Amino acid sequence: MRWIYPLAPETEQGPDVLGGKAHGLVMLRRLRLPVPPGFVIGTEACRAFLRHRRFPDGLDDELAAAVAELEATTGRRLGGPERPLVVSVRSGGGVSMPGMMTTILNLGLTSGFAAAATDGEPIPDDAIGQLRRAVAAVFSSWNSPRATTYRELHGVPHDLGTAVTVQAMVFGNRDDQSGAGVAFSRNPNTGEPVPFGEVLFGRQGDEVVSGESLTRPLHELAEREPAVWAGLLDALRRVEEHHRDACCLEFTFEAGELWLLQARPGQLAAAAAVRTAVDLADEGMIGRHEALLRVSPRHLQLVRTPRIVGVEEADVLARGLGAVPGVAVGRVATTADRAVRMAADGPVILVRPATSPLDLRGLAAAAGVVTARGGPASHAAVVARAMGKPAVVGVAGLTVDVASARAGAHRVPEGARIAIDGTGGEVVLGTPRVATTAADPHLRRLLDWADEVSGDNGAGRDAAERLGAALTALAARHLFPERVMGTSSRTG
Amino acid sequence: MTRPDSAHATGADLLALHALRCIGFASLERVAAATGLPEPEVESELIDLAVAGLVTRVAGEFGGWGLTEAGRVADAERITEELERTGTGAVVAEAYDGFLALNPELLDLCAAWQLRSVDGVVTANDHADRAYDARVLDRLTDLDRRAEAACAGLFAEMLRFRRYRVRLGDAMARARSGALEYVSDSTASYHAVWFQLHEDLLATLGIPR
Fold first, then answer.
1. Which domains does chain A have, with CATH numbers?
2. How far is CA A85 from CA A34, A175, A203, A210, in A?
3. Are the Cβ atoms of B184 and A386 closer than 8 angstroms?
4. CATH fold of B12-84, please?
5. What pTM does this model have?
6. Would you list the domain boundaries of chain B?
7. Check: complex ipTM more than 0.90
């Protein structure tokens, strides 16, 4: 085949051809981990399509052959009358561009394709015609204005194109032994070397990522689905050993069977990056020089940001996305009017479903803000950042009623004291301990190693400068080893 | 334009009332900027609206002119009545669809103006890298052009929405001339005006946020 590659251990192409997502899936297959069967259309086909506005010669035949093979592997038929083969059609370039391009799920279920057919052309009634249309839609989404803007801002060349991964769907909503989640090999906020993450029982993976449903802590899998839990721990360990770095896996389990859908780097916050680098060196996975290279001086500028520390899981009311770093402590106000009135008697935290311009004076009066909806690029986040207020957004399962907020089983009345951490996204009851990582023992050890390399005693220099001196010395000695995982997707 | 303008003009009282519905509590100066009316005229309208119990003026640091609950109800009724009487529902809905298609990209651009990812670490944009800032502004200029096209039908039929075109253009021009806060960080920034346009489209169509 010229354009299409199997998601199989023997596929040797790099992420420039397969895209980062499919390249990660091939790696999982090499580690003999469970990945739904499928194939990937390489970036060359996308480039040819964008150049000539049609599928390149041979792609149609290869697509038909790849589908036939997928049908043989799964024992199902795309568009078949009973228990048909249902596939996902996902974008994924060599450089991660999260959420910028088209993804089509449930192709092969009669209702699935309608969502992608927005250009008014008739929807083909044969399954392979629908798949062809979906692939063309994903190719074309490379040049959507939003994706173009993203590349412009992040210095990604415009001529790379996206790969398209076609995989048999697995269903986390199949039955009560099904579900989906995200698992980190180490806590991405603290670096604590224990698996961390979230799971949704009886739901599909896109509901975990969308942040619209209230997830459960990952470790609840241990009791409810011990076999899935054991498989997941094994996968986290093997992927981490392979990359010699923290990792993150998206997974689905269907009728008690575990499937891995994506492998990514560990997405570590600054303090977690420091701890993980030191721990990996202590565990003998990497050397001390490599540990220094795993941390950016920019991480060390961020470790001065205050964080909530030493909180028991039971005191965490909810988790969202940290949108504006910093800790704010205050009494809950659920409307802008109440926030303004209550702020006269001390700091308040504004808690809203989403923000509108009508909430802005409440935000101006508040010490920090929590919203149920939105991401790091939402009106709420943009405005909170402009005002310099710590913000947690996208808190799944948070509802705001008259004079109270509810997060899962917790009901928090207006006036209750909470604290929010705009780095890790935690919302905590009461007044927890707040500290920076500057005095952290892991950071002290990392900086000792840095001083050994730079031949400096560190006196009079801040942490970022001490690490920077060590990195300069290492570069001078030509000791930069090949990084195993690209750093570009860490921002994703 | 030389041809007679057939666009629907909203009365000054409803302009003032509806501005408060879309921008929240605000100073007289900001209400005037939002409506495009001179301050004395806006103040006169606001006083009449206050007498009717539809708006109120609150003192203090976070105060200003704002809607009462009765004002919110009255605004919804009058804006809906205007939409039905002028038959502009379709152009507003069309503009809203176009707006929603552009909104994620605008928010990406604002976030990129505020934050940068360097060495895989996200930190505040210190605006020291002129080339990076220029890339953001170029894409914002391009988006602004597409937004204008998406709302062209609306601007042609409803005068009150044209005010957003003027305010977005002002913010864009100021940002391009070096006033960095006019992208995302001031009350008259591109994002602030865009956010109000978002609220206005929702309020006009009666869609909850």
1. 4-168 (3.30.1490.20), 179-265 (3.30.470.20), 270-295+439-491 (no CATH), 307-435 (3.50.30.10)
2. 18, 18, 19, 25
3. yes
4. Arc Repressor Mutant, subunit A (1.10.10)
5. 0.89
6. 12-84, 88-205
7. yes
